Automatic annotation (TrEMBL):
It comes from Rhodococcus aetherivorans. It holds the Pfam family PIG-L. PANTHER family: LMBE FAMILY PROTEIN, N-ACETYLGLUCOSAMINYL-PHOSPHATIDYLINOSITOL DE-N-ACETYLASE-RELATED. InterPro entries: GlcNAc_PI_deacetylase-related, LmbE-like_dom_sf. This is GlcNAc-PI de-N-acetylase. The keyword Zinc applies. SUPFAM superfamilies: LmbE-like. It comes from the Bacteria. Keywords: Zinc.
Length: 246
């Protein structure tokens, strides 16, 4: 793991976070997003699935509307009103042209300068060990990188031009949550409270875990570890990826 973490640059105005499931952003990144929206930046969420396979005690038909509603509530806590659900089937998201097109469409629509997604690495560290990264996270993460390039090329998915969505090639950086080799951090000491409340908004999902889970304790411990590395109380770490030519 890198020993030196730089402050994540904040000389941008618009960011889009693209993840696989409702609640993916709330395990840390939402605290950073609250910091950014409080400073006047615009952030949009794109959620690939409705998370309908995530609650064992509820059928997908029951879980989907609950999880969409809870994601909307969680986003509102941190100042995000622009939330799009792509409607892919939870648990079996496949990397491919359809997913790339759907994400490129949203990039052209919202016109962000920065993208945020979850790591696409096959495994990641947790409490000193390693666990397998969920398949949807991997598929969406790689698709985000490719869609960032696709969105700027008018000859890739030219059908988007028929939707009055011209190319957008101003995405300069992508930041990965949960990466094994983070490079940048965001001080969330002043915005962690909002991040905690954002995670608490996923009440149905957390209740369905079948075990005790304290969002405040989890996020305080998680962000304290990154904060200790840069001399602040709480922080969130990301890996920065530059798009070619930037």
């Amino acid at each position: 793991m890198n020993t030196t973490l730089a402050p994540l640059p904040e000389n941008w105005n618009r960011a889009m976070a693209v993840v696989a499931h409702p609640d993916d952003l709330e395990y840390g990144a939402a605290g950073a997003i609250a910091r950014w929206t409080r400073s006047g930046k615009s952030v949009a969420y794109v959620i690939a699935t409705d998370g309908e396979a995530g609650i064992d005690g509820r059928t997908p038909a029951e879980a989907a509307p609950l999880r969409r509603r809870e994601q909307l509530d969680a986003a509102a806590v941190v100042g995000v009103e622009d939330v799009t659900f792509l409607g892919y089937r939870d648990g079996v998201v496949e990397y491919g042209l359809d997913l790339r097109r759907a994400i490129a469409r949203e990039i052209r629509r919202f016109r962000p300068e920065v993208l945020i997604t979850a790591t696409y690495e096959p495994t990641y560290g947790l409490n000193g060990g390693r666990i397998i990264n969920q398949a949807d996270h991997r598929a969406v993460g790689v698709a985000v990188l490719d869609a960032a390039r696709d969105a700027g090329n008018r000859w890739i998915f030219p059908e988007l031009l028929d939707e009055n969505l011209p190319p957008w090639d101003e995405v300069g950086l992508v930041y990965l949550m949960g990466a094994n080799q983070p490079s940048h951090t965001v001080d969330v000491t002043a915005s962690l409270d909002a991040g905690i409340e954002s995670l608490r908004a996923h009440r149905s999902y957390l209740d369905g875990l079948g075990r005790d889970f304290d969002p405040a304790a989890f996020l305080q411990e998680f962000t304290a570890a990154a904060g200790a590395r840069i001399g602040v109380q709480h922080a969130v770490a990301f890996q920065q990826i530059r798009l070619q030519g930037v």
